Amino acid sequence: MHAMTFIGPVILLGVVLGFVTMAILFERKVIGWMQGRHGPNRVGPWGVLQSVADVLKLLLKEDIIPHQADRPLFKWAPIIAFVPAFAVLAVIPYTPTVYFADIGVGLLYYIAISSITTIGVLAGGWASNNKYALLGAMRSAAQMISYEIPLVMAVIGVIMSVGSLNLMTIVEAQKNLWFILPQFIGFAVFFVASLAELNRTPFDLPEAESELVAGYHVEYTGFRFAFFMLAEYVYVFAMAGLTTVLYLGGWNPLFGMTFIPPIIWFVFKFSLIVFSLFWIRATLPRIRIDQLMQLGWKVLLPLALANIFLSAILKEIPWIGQFY
Amino acid sequence: MTYTASYLAVAVFFLLGLALPVVALTAGRFLRPDKPSAEKSISYESGVDPTGDSWVQFNVRYYLFALLFVVFDVETVFLYPWAVVYDALRADMGLFVLGEMLFFVFFLVIGLAYAWKKKVLEWT
Q1: pLDDT recorded at residue B1
Q2: Which of A193, A277, B46, B115 has the fewest CB atoms inside 10 Å of its own CB, making it the most exposed?
Q3: If you average pLDDT over every residue of chain A, what do you get?
């Protein structure tokens, strides 16, 4: 029992909230630059306080609950969606010394807990008793469960190589070679599936504003709406962290550049993933729902399954086998 | 870090994740206006009065995907422990370990191929 067990998570919560406000600003700036605009630049110097102002505005908005809605479920849905988003951060190791829970089933814990958010989204859309919200929630649930399968199967190649589900052990196993190279197919499937899990462009169908108004949170106002959005951005944090840990070697340095501290390495790789998410949003159009479902089940799932057996076969080949 | 301390940290994360929205929404109650009116609480439907309820029978397609999801999610539950102990079993029993899993996945892929052939995955 250690005082840090209680203080550590509080500090992380502060860091995550800071990340979310800055990530939203950075996303708007990056997309602005890519489209030849300035992005937000009015609130504070360089627009840094834009997201803070948005959050304060949401805090002062009236909390409207439609009279047709299922009140208890409507109130609890954003909380059900947010709690797992923060809880998954417990298992992500940042450096050899900065970690919160070193549990043996770390990866399985992440996958199991993160899927609870689907229930929050579905509950929110259904409880709203609004046709747009229901359609958005149904799409969201169908998308999240369809892409969860390739996401979890893509990781099996990594697990076979390490022989453990503990995320610290997985990072240590990448001292010499990051898994992005030997497990490239796994990484590609994982990255595409994680975009879909995060409901981000080109897979942002649950929130397709031109057809569904806003999707599952159309009836939500003020801070309840804010918690749905917060859950989404906390997942960006979590997923970027998990991708770094699984495929980019976590805190391990590149070319033995150990003079740069491990936390900087982690933050650098993490930021690269976050930037890629924004970059993709500014680059690709939204795909149609039939394309979405076919990509998940007909391309990613067979690829992920093939990757498992390919990894097992490559283990048998002399010399190459040492990398798998 | 001990086993119990790790799981205690997990519990702290859950409690903190629950505390943040509960505290923020409770604090917000003293800050936000509260002027309910009949018009405000009508469900949104592009500016017109909503017709009927939204709690209706829904497209069966979603159910088929849910069934497929359950099949493959259970498969994952079998694949994970297998992947963890793969190297140990490989040294012990040889390629029989790989063959067994190929056999298992083969039967599930037949299910996927059937769904594919029946155009369940088309979404038309």
Answers
A1: 67
A2: B46
A3: 88
What is the nearest CA distance from A77 to chain B, expressed in angstroms? 11
Same domain, residue pair B28 and B65? no
- The DSSP code for A295 is I
Mean per-residue pLDDT, B9-30: 90
B110 Cα to chain A: minimum distance (Å): 12
Is A222 within the bounds of a domain? Answer: yes
Q: Name the more confident of B25 and B120.
A: B25
Q: Which residues of A162-178 are buried (b: 16+ CB within 10 A; e: fewer)?
A: bebbbbbebbbbbeeeb
**Structural domain tally of chain B?**
2
Q: Is A160 in contact with B86 (Cβ distance < 8 A)?
A: yes
Instruction: Tell me how far apart the alpha carbons of residues B15 and B3 are, in angstroms, rounded to a whole number.
Output: 19
Backbone conformation region of residue A215, classed left if phi is above 0, alpha if psi is from -120 to 50, else beta: left
Question: With bands split at pLDDT 50, 70 and 90, how would you rate the model's confidence at B37?
Answer: confident
Whether this model's ipTM surpasses 0.90 comes out as no
In a domain, B88, yes or no: yes
Structural domain count, chain A: 1
Is pLDDT at A158 greater than 70 in this prediction? yes
Domain of residue B107 covers: 58-124
Of A12-21, A307-316, B60-69, least confident by mean pLDDT is B60-69
Q: What is the pLDDT of residue B14?
A: 92
Whether A211 contacts chain B with CB within 8 A: no
- So what's the pLDDT on residue B124? 66
Say if residue B84 is in the same domain as residue B31.
Answer: no
CA distance A152 to B75: 11
- Asked, for residue A161, whether it belongs to a domain, the answer is yes
Per residue in A60-90, pLDDT (tens digit) is 888 888 888 888 999 899 999 999 999 999 9
B28 and B63 belong to one structural domain: no
Q: Residue B80: its chain A contacts at CB < 8 A?
A: 108, 156, 159, 165
| Paired tokens of B124 | 């038309």
CB contact A185 to B (< 8 Å): no
Residue B51 lies in a domain: no
User: How is A165-211 classified by DSSP, letter by letter?
Assistant: --HHHHHHTTSSS-TTTTTHHHHHHHHHHHHHHTT-TTS-GGG-HHH
The DSSP call for residue A300 is I
> Does any domain span residue A227?
yes
Count chain A–chain B contacts defined by CB atoms under 8 A.
204
User: Among B44, B50, B65, whose Cβ lies nearest the Cβ of A146?
Assistant: B65
Instruction: Looking at the structure, tell me whether residues B70 and B124 fall in a common domain.
Output: yes
CA gyration radius, chain B: 26
Whether B32 and A61 lie within 8 Å, measured CB to CB: yes
- Structural domain includes residue B46: no
Cβ neighbours of B74 in A, within 8 Å:
none
Which of A83, A85, A108 comes nearest B80 by C-beta? A108
Same domain, B66 and B106: yes
Residue range of the domain that includes A226: 61-323
Give the nearest chain B residue to A131 (CA atoms): B54
Residues on chain B touching A298 (C-beta within 8 angstroms): 116, 121
Residue B74 lies in a domain: yes
